[in-house]
Amino acid sequence: MIPPPQTPTAAAGISKSPSMSSKIPFRARKIRRLSSSSDTSIKIGKSPESPNAESSISPKIRKSLSCKTEIDLALEHLRNSDPLLAALISAHRPPELTPCISPFQSLSRSILYQQLATKAAKSIYTRFISLCGEESSVLPETVLSLTPQKLREIGVSARKASYLHDLADKYATGILSDSSILEMDDDTLITMLTAVKGIGMWSVHMFMMFSLHRPDVLPVGDLGVRKGVQSLYGLKQLPKPQQMEEICEKWKPYRSVGSWYMWRLMEAKATGATGPSAATTRVEP
After folding, report:
1. Which segments show compositional bias classed as Polar residues (predicted)?
2. Are residues 107 and 205 in the same domain?
3. What is the pTM of this model?
4. Which residues of the chain have pLDDT under 70?
């Protein structure tokens, strides 16, 4: 299955007027210094001075592949770590990323494209945009205002309408937001997005790769990537998820780019073409 192109952007400031109570004078109090023996709350977990304290609190998110220098680093790493992949990289142009829009719009598009031929999906998505007003108007509140009947009239199934409404509701209630999605580490993102109705692991992997441009995503459930790994390494059978993890371990921390080349490999085999002319410059598989 060839996933549709996805494109992945806002925080509101809250002003607070001074409280009347702030004008009431208070007597200064001495602050008792806690002894090291009684300061148990600070000793739980890593100390602030620990070099790994920051990563333990907020897992580091690697630079986005939107940055060309990051793609260059990825290609250098993959060439050095995997000779078979190095030959494939030399035969194809590097990926070029498409512009990002908003995570909410990208996820909505992903839902509408599910299990449809590209032409039919584009047609429904175009009508969906018109129903919302314009592409920039694909917002949670707009989607929630669209009844299942209105969505049905443009070709959206009742099930997909419920998926769209569940996504929009999670935004409206603050469970998700564009800003929080951009800040989540990969594991948290997978957990939060797969809790949305109609969004499974494959959809999240595609979103992470082609909307957020996360560098280290391995879509172990994607048939094209699995076939690419099978072909590249001469395996007799399609590798299973655990085997995929083991084989592609050497690609870390740029498994997204390695996976991208698996799609290019299968495209070349399907057309019988070889060399740079067989490659596509689009990032979407």
Report:
1. 49-58
2. yes
3. 0.75
4. 1-62, 273-285
* Domain count along the chain: 2
Task: Determine the distance from the C-alpha atom of residue 172 to the mean position of all C-alpha atoms in its chain, rounded to a whole number.
Answer: 20
Residue 14 within a domain: no
Q: Please give the pLDDT value at position 61.
A: 57
Query: Residue 40: what residue type?
Result: T
- Pair 100, 248: CB distance under 8 Å: no
Q: What is the domain extent for residue 173?
A: 103-210
Neighbour count for residue 131 (Cβ, 10 Å): 18
Alpha-carbon dihedral sign for residues 183, 189, 192, 195? positive
Number of Cβ within a 10 Å radius of residue 271: 9
Which two three-digit tokens encode residue 138?
């694909």
Residue 101's CB is within 10 A of a number of other CB atoms, namely 18
- Residue 258 in contact with residue 248, Cβ under 8 Å? yes
Tell me, what's the pLDDT at 63?
78
CATH of the domain at 206: 1.10.340.30
Q: What is the number of other CB atoms lying within 10 angstroms of the CB of residue 9?
A: 11
DSSP H or E segment with residue 129: helix 118-132
Q: How many other C-beta atoms are found inside a 10 Å radius of the C-beta of residue 91?
A: 18
- For the four alpha carbons of 33, 38, 41 and 43, in that order, the dihedral sign comes to positive
Tokens of 168: 């929009």
Of 184, 210, 236, which marks where a domain is finished?
Answer: 210
Number of helices (H) and strands (E), helices first, in the chain?
Answer: 15, 0
Q: 192 with 176: CB under 8 angstroms?
A: yes
Give the pLDDT of residue 23. Answer: 38
pLDDT at residue 97, rounded to an integer: 80
In a domain, 113, yes or no: yes
